[in-house]
Design a protein that fits this description.
single chain, 388 residues, alpha+beta, Butyryl-CoA Dehydrogenase, subunit A, domain 2, 9 strands, 15% strand
């Protein structure tokens, strides 16, 4: 019999979450985040450098021999909940979660014990927050699907390099990135490193529903690239990144949902109508109770997914699909209730409720929609399709 998984937060996770919450309360208040959405560059790179280097989040998953903290996905998920609660405009998801998972997988496949692989070398540079990386795939790409190669090899470059061409639409966290990890079509397919500031690389910001995580289109025009891994190793590395992204985004959505519930409860305890606080009305109590139940169930799914990734559990694919589906639906519901139960003020630009609704809706389609993940579960758990 498989031992039960401990879903409770450890002391380390709680301390990390508390430190991040304190930092975000000081540096990413709702007014600060809202103000940034009106600027051309909506990412807060100064805050990201503080989180990455000062808090050590950039190297959280990176092994100690490569300069990282050697922590697990459980700790990163606890941090992601706090980022979701603040809708923090930083590229932690693209770099500390997705790109790091890609490179960890690539480093394992390339390790031969004689020299530092390209992937391991990148991880060492990322560990102290000095380098921000992103997997250059469309934000809607989900794990368990075909290799997402929007770029192709166009020829040979300088010694030991390759040139890539192609356009990759709607990439999240690419605007503040220093390097791009580009899946490219070839014989075989491969994963390549492209310097974001290199000649032939063009990043075009796009107006995004969620301006706290702005998307951009990446165009490669014979951009010079260095090979990281090819073939099956590249497939595995990209899928590992997408899986980690879906799991950590689920945790972020959980934190967002919990914050929306807390914010709504606090408002209902203060707002008065008919000489009573509106939180005393039974109809509103029922809505909040239903929302609390939804979030509690989503928390169990998210914690289990993080634990499975941390332990290398073979049930990870199933756990991540469940978590992404449950947490995204909980977040959208919580954000909608937050807007509605705040009444007229909840629909104003000045109130932060719309930031949470936009993040919840945008994140719900990232790394696969809830419906797509539920559909994939049928194959993962061997449920036959219904008869026609």
């Amino acid at each position: 019999m498989t031992a039960a998984v401990d879903l409770l937060y450890s002391d380390t996770e709680r301390e990390l979450a508390a430190a991040i919450a304190d930092l975000l309360a000081d540096r990413a208040s709702p007014a600060d985040v809202l103000a940034r959405t009106e600027k051309p560059e909506t990412y807060d790179t100064d805050l990201w450098h503080t989180v990455a280097a000062g808090v050590g989040l950039a190297g959280l998953l990176i092994p100690e021999p490569l300069g990282g903290a050697g922590a697990s996905y459980r700790e990163l998920a606890a941090a992601a909940e706090r980022f979701g609660a603040a809708v923090a405009p930083i590229p932690y998801l693209g770099s500390a979660a997705v790109a790091t998972a890609v490179l960890l997988s690539a480093a394992r496949s390339a390790a031969d014990g004689t020299q530092l692989s390209p992937a391991a070398g990148l991880l060492r540079r990322m560990a102290d927050g000095g380098l921000t990386a992103v997997l250059a795939v469309e934000f809607t790409a989900r794990p368990g699907t075909l290799f997402p190669a929007a770029a192709r090899i166009s020829g040979a470059g300088a010694t030991g390099t390759t040139r890539l061409r192609g356009t990759i639409p709607a990439v999240a966290d690419a605007l503040p990135a220093d390097v791009l990890l580009v899946p490219a079509e070839g014989v075989p397919n491969g994963l390549y490193l492209v310097e974001a500031a290199a000649q032939g690389v063009h990043r075009t910001p796009v107006v995004s529903l969620d301006m706290t995580r702005q998307l951009c289109d990446i165009t490669l025009d014979d951009a010079e690239a260095r090979q990281i891994v090819v073939g099956t190793a590249a497939d595995d590395a990209v899928d590992a990144g997408l899986t980690a992204g879906a799991a950590m985004l689920a945790a972020e959505q959980l934190g967002l949902a919990q914050h929306c519930l807390d914010m709504t409860v606090a408002y209902l305890k203060e707002r008065r109508q008919f000489a009573r606080t509106i939180g005393s009305f039974q109809a509103l109590k029922h809505r909040l109770a239903d929302l609390w139940t939804t979030i509690t169930l989503a928390r169990a799914a998210s914690r289990y997914a993080a634990a499975c990734l941390a332990d290398g559990d073979p049930d990870a694919a199933v756990a991540v699909a469940l978590a992404k589906s449950a947490c995204c639906e909980a977040a959208v519901t919580a954000a909608q209730e937050c807007v509605q139960l705040h009444g007229g003020i909840g629909f104003t630009w000045e109130h932060p409720a719309h930031l949470y609704l936009k993040r919840a809706k945008a994140a719900s389609v990232a790394f696969g929609t809830p419906g797509a993940h539920r559909e994939s579960l049928a194959g993962l758990v061997n449920i036959p399709a219904p008869d026609a």
